[in-house]
Amino acid sequence: MMNKGLLFVISGPSGTGKGTICDELLKNENNNLFLSISATTREKRKDETEGVTYYYKTIDEFKRMINNGELLEHAVYNGNYYGTLRKNVEQMLDEGKNVLLEIEPQGALNVKCNFPEAILMFVIPPSADELKNRLINRGRESEEQIEKRLNAAKWELEQACKYSHIFVNDNLDECVKEIEKIIKEENKNRNKVNELLKEWN
Ligand code: ADP
Ligand code: 5GP
């Protein structure tokens, strides 16, 4: 029987480079990594596509999904709901795919409770100034939004020690390589455990 895939969670403050890192990880076929598309009540931005960046929901639709147990985790971030679709994740894992969640830390810690075998990875910026610069240079949010995201970063950074792995995103290529090393190692170790377990069956 085929081994199930592994669930990797990448988290960290907004602007730290999670999206950029995930794009690189997803490009490398050796990682056998597939992104879970989240649901959100946040307004769709001009450059975003339904079903590709997010599934866009009304607050009522989102609450219905929570009540029906359709979400593996969810959180409110800056006044909007965000959540991971349980069925999509489970289907990909059953197909032997490694699944990637790119989510904020409240949700990541919920995954740790609901799905303890998940591998939690936290990305930190090289400095507070650099985080601010990245948010400003990205030019996506208003000054007020950037301030809110920087304020949220303090609590988020305090959660870093609860993760299995912490990575500094200073040099992008080096950071991606370090994460890929962990993905490879986790796959190797889990495969070994599965092999061993077969000896008991
Ligand atoms: P997040 O998804 O964590 O909010 P992004 O991936 O959108 O962050 O990155 C925020 C900004 O920082 C983007 O403009 C991105 O190009 C830039 N960036 C990402 N990683 C690095 C890096 N290692 N060095 C310099 N800039 C980076
Ligand atoms: P944005 O509005 O910039 O797309 O996302 C804001 C924050 O929500 C980011 O930190 C992003 O990682 C996080 N996020 C995206 N999808 C989910 C999700 O399904 N669950 C949780 N908890 N956070 C998410």
Mind sketching the topology for me?
Blueprint: E1 7-11, H1 18-27, E2 33-35, E3 39-40, E4 55-56, H2 59-67, E5 71-77, E6 80-85, H3 86-94, E7 98-102, H4 105-114, E8 119-124, H5 128-138, H6 143-158, E9 165-168, H7 172-198
Parallel strand pairs: 1-7, 1-8, 2-7, 3-4, 8-9
Antiparallel strand pairs: 3-6, 5-6
The structure holds adenosine-5'-diphosphate and guanosine-5'-monophosphate.
Name a few traits of the molecule.
Rossmann fold; 201 residues; binds adenosine-5'-diphosphate; 46% helix; binds guanosine-5'-monophosphate; 7 helices; alpha/beta; four-stranded mixed β-sheet; globular; five-stranded parallel β-sheet
Mean pLDDT: 96
Rg (CA only): 17 Å
Structural class estimated from helices and strands: alpha/beta
Question: So what's the overall shape?
Answer: globular
Q: What amount of the residues lies in strands? A: 15-25%
User: What ligand species are in this complex?
Assistant: adenosine-5'-diphosphate, guanosine-5'-monophosphate
Give the % helix. 40-55%
Oligomeric grouping of the chains: single chain
Description of the molecule:
The protein has 201 residues and is of the alpha/beta class. The chain has one domain: P-loop containing nucleotide triphosphate hydrolases (Rossmann fold, 3-Layer(aba) Sandwich), CATH 3.40.50. Helix content is 46%, strand content 20%. It contains 7 helices and 9 strands. The chain has helices spanning 18-27, 59-67, 86-94, 105-114, 128-138, 143-158, 172-198, and strands spanning 7-11, 33-35, 39-40, 55-56, 71-77, 80-85, 98-102, 119-124, 165-168. The strands form 2 sheets. Strands 2-7-1-8-9 form a 5-stranded parallel beta sheet, sandwiched between helices. Strands 4-3-6-5 form a 4-stranded mixed beta sheet. Helix 1 crosses helix 7. The longest helix is centred in the last third of the chain and has 27 residues, at 172-198. The radius of gyration is 17 Å and the shape is globular. The two termini are 13 Å apart. The relative contact order is 0.21. The model has no long low-confidence stretch (mean pLDDT 96). It binds adenosine-5'-diphosphate and guanosine-5'-monophosphate (5GP). Guanosine-5'-monophosphate (5GP) binds next to strand 5, strand 6 and helix 4.
